[in-house]
Amino acid sequence: MVDHPPETVNQVVEFANSAEPGPGWELPLLLFAGFRSLIDRLHSELAAQGHPEVRPAHGFAMQAIGRAGITASELGKRLGVSKQAAGKTVDRLERLGYARRLADDADSRRRLVTLTPRGIDALTRSAAIFEQLRAEWATTLGDRRLGELTAGLRTMAPADGFRMDVAGWFGN
């Protein structure tokens, strides 16, 4: 274990309004805080628009399912979770009325997970809410700064996509 002086412990609050670059550990925390602020605002607005039961994990799963549908196994791969975990997520989405399992016309052994009209409505509303949130960020940061931030994040994101198993980062 490394012994750190008290001033080097992650004290994000102390740097909150600083124009200085800040210590290295601050960057991932700020990125996560920005992510959380967007996701929390999204879900608050989704609840107000008739989708109070949607959780972030559901949104990631519905994005991964898409309009064409996929198998639970493919969903697990896209989310970076086991087939069993994906199956539980699908079970929950089915109970909430956001997804359904259908026989695959091309292969009778497969069951496709597809979004219901309610699931598509939640994603459509999410897209509109994200546009509103992005506009708010543009108002606060300015279009140029937000464009530079977005371009920089695209540069740093893996070229082959990214895993959406956010909950897995915290030991779920």
From TrEMBL:
Pfam families: MarR_2. One of its GO terms (molecular function) is DNA binding. Keywords: DNA-binding. One of its GO terms (biological process) is response to stress. InterPro entries: ArsR-like_HTH (IPR011991), HTH_MarR-typ (IPR000835), MarR/SlyA-like (IPR039422), WH-like_DNA-bd_sf (IPR036388), WH_DNA-bd_sf (IPR036390). Residues 24-158 form the HTH marR-type domain. CDD domains: HTH_ARSR. This is DNA-binding transcriptional regulator, MarR family. It comes from Amycolatopsis marina.
